[in-house]
């Protein structure tokens, strides 16, 4: 069956997911403020500023079998997060519920920033969310807006996303910088292609009448310290570290994400740990070639 999937905030993850769904024969509509990036992707473009979306305008968004809300805030400011997450999502839900055929499910791409744990605690979907930042607080508000809404909805909390073009950590290591051994700061990571893989998988689960939970934690299979991640990358690049980085106190969180719930749905990670994932990024980005040249 051909599905229509509406991707709101169709950026890197949305485009990658869209191409995957298109390869399966589905119709994909990408919503973003500026649609030039969708040219030649096969994704149908829909130019729309969510700030201008009227709740009562049922025709502002097309009917779709599935909606993926993967919007990014314009800036790391409270007003930008308020607009992008709780307010924007609520507007979209208000429009979609007016359709004669509402979506089968809405997926909201959230973040593990909703957790405030700092002592390396293991967290899962049942763990308390006590965010220490406005970003986490507003993410929580958006999550609840979807979970409490009459439309069927599922939140997916992704941890630190990396992948092609998301290589800031590699550049830091290449410059000789590395995270300190202490205090121990755990890093939870997920490759971009596993973000899109999980979203596509959950659509398949719904289509196969497999019950879905309200919430999934999307993180790879090995929580690891930031020092160990950067040390491994340094070994691959044959770089000697000369500068130790300290995480700013205001941004210092440390937790270990438990991904058992998503694994129990049958999802198999394309990049189970940071090693497989960063090996792909190093190869695709030409970092190994540069170092060996």
Automatic annotation (TrEMBL):
CDD domains of this UniProt entry? SDR_a4
Pfam families tied to this protein? Epimerase
| Location of the NAD-dependent epimerase/dehydratase domain | 5-169
Name the PANTHER family for this protein.
Answer: NAD(P)-BINDING DOMAIN-CONTAINING PROTEIN-RELATED, PROTEIN YEEZ
Please report the name of this protein according to its UniProt entry: SDR family oxidoreductase
Higher taxonomy: Bacteria, Pseudomonadati, Pseudomonadota, Gammaproteobacteria, Oceanospirillales
């Amino acid at each position: 069956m051909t599905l229509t999937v509406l991707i709101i905030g169709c950026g890197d993850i949305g485009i990658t997911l869209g191409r995957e769904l298109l390869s399966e024969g589905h119709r994909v509509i990408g919503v973003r403020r500026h649609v030039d990036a969708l040219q030649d992707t096969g994704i149908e473009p829909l130019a729309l500023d969510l700030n201008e979306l009227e709740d009562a305008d049922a025709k502002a968004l097309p009917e779709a079998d599935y909606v993926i809300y993967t919007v990014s805030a314009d800036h790391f400011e409270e007003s930008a997060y308020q607009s992008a997450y709780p307010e924007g999502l609520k507007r979209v839900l208000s429009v979609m519920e007016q359709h004669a055929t509402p979506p089968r499910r809405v997926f909201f791409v959230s973040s593990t920033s909703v957790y405030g744990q700092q002592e390396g605690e293991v967290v899962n979907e049942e763990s308390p969310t006590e965010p220490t930042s406005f970003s986490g607080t507003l993410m929580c508000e958006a999550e609840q807006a979807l979970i409490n809404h009459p439309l069927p909805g599922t939140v997916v909390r992704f941890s630190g996303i990396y992948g092609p073009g998301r290589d800031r950590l590699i550049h830091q290591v290449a410059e000789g910088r590395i995270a300190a051994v202490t205090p121990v700061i755990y890093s939870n990571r997920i490759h971009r292609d596993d973000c899109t893989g999980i979203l596509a998988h959950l659509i398949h689960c719904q289509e196969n009448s497999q019950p879905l939970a309200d919430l999934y934690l999307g993180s790879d299979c090995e929580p690891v310290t930031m020092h160990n991640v950067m040390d491994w990358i340094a070994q691959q690049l044959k770089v000697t570290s000369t500068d130790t980085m300290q995480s700013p106190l205001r941004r210092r969180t440390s937790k270990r994400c438990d991904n058992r719930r998503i694994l129990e749905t049958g999802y198999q990670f394309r990049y189970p740990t940071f090693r497989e994932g960063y090996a792909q990024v190093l190869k695709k980005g030409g970092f190994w070639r540069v170092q060996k040249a």
